[in-house]
Amino acid sequence: MYPLLDTINSPEQLRLLDRKELPELAAQLRTFLIDSVSQTGGHLSSNLGVVELTIALHYVFNTPDDRLVWDVGHQTYPHKILTGRRNAMSGLRKPNGIAGFPRRTESKYDTFGTGHSSTSISAALGMAIAAQQTGSERRAVAIIGDGAMTAGMAFEALNNAGAMDANLLVILNDNDMSISPNVGALQNYLAKLLSGRLYSTVRNSSKKVLGVMPPVLEFAKHAEEHVKGMVTPGTLFEEFGFNYIGPIDGHDIDVLIATLTNIRQLKGPQFLHIVTQKGHGYGPAEDNPGKYHGVSKFDPKNGCAVATGGKKTYTQVFSDWLVDMAAKDTRLIGITPAMCDGSGLNAFSEKYPKRFFDVGIAEQHALTFAAGMACDGMKPVVAIYSTFLQRAYDQFIHDIALQNLPVMFAIDRAGLVGADGPTHAGSFDISYLRCIPNIIIMTPSDENECRQMLYTAYQHDGPSAVRYPRGGGPGAAINDTMSALPIGQGEIRRKGNKVAILAFGSMLTPALAAGEQLDATVANMRFVKPLDITLISALANSHEVIVTVEENAIMGGAGAAVMEALQGLNKPITVLTLGLPDEFIEHGTHETMLEDCGLSANGIVASIEKIIT
Questions:
Q1: What are 333's strand-pairing partners?
Q2: 153 vs 200, more confident
Q3: Which side of the chain, N or C, has fewer Cβ within a 10 Å radius?
Q4: Burial class (CB in 10 A: 0-12, 13-18, 19+), 539
Q5: Whole-angstrom Cα distance, residue 453 to residue 405?
């Protein structure tokens, strides 16, 4: 089925092919991608868009000696397939299978582990300087998308790199930017010309000659910028100190190879601008690239997803609440750092477009932007993944909490996230948030409690956070009426003897099951901060053992907060804290991951029995 692709198990074998064979290889690779991802789920649109680029990079550069650094990494399936992992694609994102993102421990061709955006230029620059320090001629290439270029970190790296003479190539994979003119034969020709040695030599030599005549040099510089500016949008990148080339057609493999071959001979910082199409070569993904960005299993013939059940997810609960709350309060503003669909803001953005702000992949800006709005009477709601909130920690402390501003955080993907693995897991938010003054933190145990907690957080006159997991809860009926919960008050959900289990958020369901087996008391704590000290004190007085259960790192988590509270109460009692261990948890199914961490009902029972028998 894949006669050419089946012969390629390494870039060395790829480089033995005749260039005329590469378009057919691209076609087979694209078909294999569609068939493979339809069976495993994963990222599709982004990978279909870089098939030709991936082939060209491995064809021209001497990988892995030459370093390829992929930004985010959700577009590296073609890279994995061409670097000896084609047969492993059937286990993509599954337990003990290959990861959905680059990992240094997985392959020597994965030069830098990624998962979050906008890190590639910084990492590749570090590699380029390391090569310079050791006298190596290897090249470093950063491949970054237009979305990732919205982050400040990317521009910090560009600014730094342009001031150095390191041999760094930055490739901008542009599949949505408005700055790009139509790419055609003339533009492709100009890109080849501008990347060639003749142009580079003339350009540099003329500057040396004109350097003795400053006014003439300045005139020549402006003349060059004017001429190039008429046909390329590269003035910005030239100002950063890069030699800009492009834009070129990212699906024309001959143009890619010719241009990359030329660039590989050039010294100093180079910037190549390519234009691609997300989902290229697969009709359903071309028509709706957002829908096919991250997919579950689907039928490759028509693109239809395989049915997985209709239970409402926590993200959908938030989406419904946001629209309902916005109807009641015109001050509500929805903010997201480039995660409108994933965070559940689509319905809100359509109904209230003037009150919706997608700031791009700029988490730091998102928080301070929200703080500014809160200063002037707005009620901003920041919808963000737990793992991405980490990137704006200083802004959370300095710009929001320190000023006690009423900014509300809807923290999605809290806890383990299954197939996306450790780069996207929300394992640390309780630990890094609860130490901040002025904040309240809530952990819903079911869908209805989530809705009521969102309302509670919104009413709070200060920073607030509701953290909820990926996917659905236990299936609780949702009350459309919204009522605020008493701040810092938990509840007893099951009365028992000897052992009291204090469950936080998603862990209430397995804790109740464990409580039935052990005849233990089970408390739904609801609040991490402020803790229900009265409830904790009462349970410590009436039980022999306190057990805390949370889907967060044990170190510094909710269990640690309970131990601190017990110490403050001077309650000498045995305490067992259960949660995520001090390690990064590998990708797999959510259920398997919880089982491995001892956070299933049986795991909780087993841990408790060890200390009471």
A1: 380
A2: 153
A3: C
A4: buried
A5: 18
Residue 357: how many CB atoms within 10 A of its CB? 20
In the chain, % of residues over pLDDT 70: 90
Q: Residue 396: which of 441, 424, 364, 359 has the closest Cα?
A: 364
Residue 476 to residue 447: CA distance in whole angstroms:
6
Active site residue 221: no
Decide if 514 contacts 608 (C-beta within 8 A): yes
**Helix, strand, coil % over all residues of the chain, rounded to 5:** 45, 15, 40
Q: Side chain identity at 485, as an amino acid letter?
A: L
Average pLDDT, the chain: 91
User: What is the DSSP code string of 238-249?
Assistant: HHTT-EEEEEEE
Active site residue 278: yes
Measured from the Cβ of residue 283, the count of other Cβ atoms closer than 10 Å reads: 10
- Does residue 216 carry a pLDDT above 60? no
**Cβ burial 248-276 (10 Å sphere, 16+ → b, else e):** bbbbbbebbbbbbbbbbebebbbbbbbbb
Q: Are 570 and 537 in contact (CB under 8 A)?
A: no
pLDDT attached to residue 234: 75
Query: CB-based burial of residue 393 (10 Å sphere; 0-12 exposed, 13-18 middle, 19+ buried)?
Result: middle
CA dihedral 414, 420, 422, 426 (to 10 degrees): -10
Whether pLDDT at 223 is above 90: no
Nearest 5°: the CA angle 315, 74, 357 is: 45
Which residue's structure tokens are 């009926």? 477
Phi, psi (deg, nearest 5) at residue 492? -85, 125
Residue tagged active-site, from 86, 278, 413, 526 = 278
The catalytic position among 52, 238, 363, 449 is: 363
Distance (Å, rounded) from C-alpha 434 to C-alpha 396?
A: 12
- In degrees and rounded to multiples of 5, residue 517 shows phi and psi of -70, -35
Which tens digits make up the pLDDT trace of 169-214? Answer: 999 999 864 333 444 554 465 555 556 655 555 455 444 444 444 5
- Res. 310 pLDDT band, cuts 50 70 90: low
Q: Indicate the pTM of the whole model.
A: 0.88
Active site residue 493: no
Whether the predicted pLDDT of 527 surpasses 60: yes
Cα 315 → chain centroid: 16
